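Re: Re: token formats

Sure, here are both.
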Amino acid sequence: MYKVDINNKKLIELSSTKYADLGLKERFDIQEWIEKSPTILGEDLLVIGKEVTLRSGRRLDLLCIDKNASLVIVELKRDDSGTEVEWQAIKYASFCSNFLSDEIFQHFARYLVSSEYEAQKKIEEFIAVDIENLNQSQRIILVSNKFNSEIISAVLWLRDFGVNVQCVRLAPYVDSDDELFIKPDVIIPLPEAKDYIEKKEIKLREKPGVQIEWTGYWFVNVGDGTHRTWEDNRKYGFIGAGQGKWYSDALKRLTVGDKIYAYMKGLGYVGFGEVTHKAVMIKDFIVPEFDKSLLELELKAERPQKNSDDEDLSEWVVGVKWIKTVSKQHAKTFVGVFANQNVVCKLRHEQTLRFVQKEFDLRI
């Protein structure tokens, strides 16, 4: 690691060191830094507890909540992870998995020295999903200067079986003036390959050579951009795709009566509905409620009419009776949720189906 001397146009190499050599402690120093700046772990986290005492008498270093309302157990080691830190964190996570919402509010209120109402309000303001999703899943973040090879092996093995464990290295360096610098690195999973790794882990957990039975529901990607918006979809009862035959042809797979789950890339599931009208060019789609062409109505999309006279390039529209929808800010997701780059495909992932049925309160 180097510090840049801009004026003299040169690099000054920093020296790798150990926290112990600097007299810094795991609990009284590193933990305090992370508590005050949790983004050093590579994401936005809300710290809701420090040195949380469990029934066993053991103390959990930091308890956090992520944007998806999952509880995040942060376990710290100073200069070396040791060989059993992952087992220790798993025990903590299993205990926290049983926390009810009220218990979480109580822990946070004690941490804040405030009322449970204020604690709940702060959590609701922080998370990007409904409060009902609180603690539906748990995650583990292991933090250390160095990670034992046995820990790395164990973490990778656990991830293959769907346990969400991450390793974050906080490496200390000093300059010639003994000024301390911290270099944070998420080493598992590597941020640049996070999507690939998670999808690969899901694929490895599926049985090879076995065709998974179709659930009877369709997965549909809904866009939010120049030619179409989810807000328009919800308001006027449709889904759209186009600006290329490959995209519009996918919509033609849907028939009247089909049940669909709408998904927004990178966010999650936003709606469940039933197809009411087969795919037609956007200029020919009549919105029954208004008895007008869709293009005559006030749309949020900037250019839905682009190429509307070209059968291959036009936007195409499928009519949908929405049974339950949410805004994109409240999209439903979880680690391992089914997603696909295709506009339309068959939903075969049972775990995802159970999840969306629960999230959209459906008993179809």
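Second one below.
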Amino acid sequence: MQKKFSAKYNLPVPAAYTLCIVLLIVCILFSPWQPKKVYAANLYDINTLIGKRDSAFIADHRGKIVFSKNADKQLVPASTLKLLTSLVALNYLGRDYRFTTEFYIDKQSNLKIKGYGDPLLISEIIDEISDILGKKLADSEISSINDIVLDDSYFTSPIIIPGNSFSPEPYDAPNGALCANFNTINFERGPDGSYISAEPQTPLLPFALKKIKDASLNKGRIVLSKEKDEITLYAGHLFFYFLKNKGINCNGRVRLGGVHKENDRLIYKHISKFSLQQIISKLLRYSNNFMANQLLVASGAKLFGSPGSLEKGVAAAARYAKDVLKIEEICLVEGSGLSRKNHISAKMLGRTLEEFEEHRILMRHMGREFYKTGTLKDIATRAGYIENNKGELYRFVVMINTPGKSTQNIMSKILKSLN
């Protein structure tokens, strides 16, 4: 029987096929354009930069793991934990959720204010609310009020956040159900040497002046404490100030108390202008620890009932991790990443990113990267998404728990790898 031959090389057809395949492989290997070779080299470099106390994890848009080292090791996540806290809030509160604050009048003409954890109750908002309250009171033919009574019972008090350094920054403020201006006061010296507010929209109240004087500073910011109900009373005194500015006679004092819905009349329910998604965007952009734990405690209250507590918030996060992310081995003690007792693996954070992907626009965005960083002393973390030149999205997690190291070199290699 006569064999078939390749016309060009005078070879049997099967041998010609084999030769073509070999030539194709040689062309690929020795081509000047070798993305796979560059890709592999960069990933090898990443491998050498990950120490025993570090980890990294990269997955492509299909979920295929591209790189993994120590990805199951439980490490301190720092502020990258806020991504998980945000998902917990989105799941239990809902993406369109808006915080509320309620205002009641009782039979003694006391104005009662009940807080539900709004993290963005700031001077400008309180001014707007006071304007509306003035009109509501006028409609009810109430010309003056007696006491301003504050109900902060929707959260337990005090809420102690492990790892909180009690710094003067707004993002480290204590948590509560009724808070204003992140429980901070920003001040400076005026031309005559007296203390004045450093923020024109916020008055410097006599309530805060003694605390400022005790700080012995010429300018700066002080954080109100949980002691003697400072954070709640400050919110009440701000309302007292703005209501008087609207021409409402306030004849009594500011004090703590409770709303009794069967006897007290609701005159106004303030609904925040900020949706939960907008709050999360601000929380991630400024890495605000106060806002993160406000969301966590509110999520716990929604799931397990009021009063909200840190314990209920942590339990809500654990349930979400188990039911939605299918993660059980996780150690959380709060929701901001402040505590070194929080432990999570890079793989778990990778699973968190998979669920968070549709919300990535809420994260910081630079070039091809959506990201969240985390920093504590001797801790550096970074997690997010990188888009390659084909528009494909990669999820990445880098967790550095080795003193003196950063994520910078590793991220440089990752970005080169994912062109």
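The mean pLDDT is 89. The chain has eleven helices and 18 strands.
- S.
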